[in-house]
Write a structure and sequence with these properties.
The protein is mainly alpha-helical. The protein has 20 helices and four strands. Helix 5 packs parallel to helix 8 and helix 8 packs parallel to helix 10.
Length: 489
Amino acid sequence: MWLVVLPILGCLTFYYIFLATAGTYRNTTFSSNYYNHMSEGFRHGHLYIQETPSAALLAKPNPFDSSNFSLWFWDASLYKGRYYLYWGPVPALLLLLFKGIARYHGTIIDQWPTLLFMLGRLYAGAAIILRMSRYVRTRMPAWFVGLSILIFGLASPTPFIVARPHIYEACLAAGQCFLFWGLYAALCGIINANRRVVLYLLAGILWALAIGSRVTSLIPVPLMVLTTLLFTWLRSDRAIRPVLRPMLAISVPVALAIGGYALYNYLRFESVFEFGLKYQVTLQRFFTSRQFIVPNIFSYLFAPVVWSCKFPFVISLTYRPLSSLITWPPGYQNFERVAGMFTTSYWTWLVVIPVWRILAAALRFIRKGAQVSPSALASIEVWLSFCSVALILSMWPALGLWEASMRYLDDALGGVLLLSIFAGLWLLRQSSKLKRLANRFGVRFVLLALGLLTCFVGAFSGIATYYDTFKQDNPALYASLEKSLSVCK
């Protein structure tokens, strides 16, 4: 198995570094350094950043008016004469820790935390897939494990996130990294009863760090904690005492993180529920409406891409055409690059299988009152499926926004991919019962085709990102790749 997995992880690691640096292996031109600003504020003993609002801005009757654009520190939160940043503080604290240990006093741009956290997400996903491969009812063949890891690392928009390393992507990457490593620790805890308390404590700490990195993690983390405790209880013959210590181990760090974030908000904005969005100086204020939910769901699933015979072959669109299949409400924006999950990550089509299986099981239960055995509920597949659904729900706040944005899709992608991997495994299991060899090979061919096409589209669609970083920072390499890889002039 490792002979398959290690080369794949090595190639993906190199490709992530290549994407994040536009093939230059150094700082890119179009990046931010907001976490560095935040960490420097912490280093000086306060929660606001070192940059101070100009006297001209503070003298304005309404500093938040768009006419003051030239005076703003973009997307910062202006409150009582100070600038704060609304992104989670954990990555900045880790950056501060690194700079203290390394005795480094220079500026670290958000490109590097984004890359490291996305690599962390990749390795966590690979660890989950490998661990899962030994405990599901049908063992995963090596080729399927390798394909699953490739898909997890390359399915769009993951390469797009890696190639656009700004604070927005760094925040998302940190949350995803800690969510998936926490999921892995919880998975190991479910499997290994002797070390369950320690592993659950580790899972709780990692999920607490996810909350402190990206506030939308407040949605999946409590759901995953409850799901984990429920399955632990079921595997313990529904006894309370065996799950009491694991319950405290996994719950207390999460509770402390929620309380700590509330205190952090109160110390900054005198409200436990205010994260700084209300006080942003920006031209794109966050607001939500129910009328945007359906358009956003449609965009995240079906937004088109442009195919070309020229490198990079697959390009997501700015100001994409809006389909006539639904009604688009007034005020809905389409200026950001967005490519639908079903139009780029073809592997995710398999997610309809677990949805169909759940609905079918529910109908059988309603009609026949069928009993579900505790052993079936406690299976690793079912637990991980519930956690995958919780991960998908972390995208819920973005569905009400006035626009779709590629990066938000990555909040849900990991959960969808895990469900789709289970669906692929179920197809393999079902195909093994087929009598004709051609049919069994047919199922494997379809899975391989969907997976490889997903990897191809994801790998190349990440090249064309915001600001066209490759064209701007490495035009010679881009021209060379375009000349050598394009299949037409």
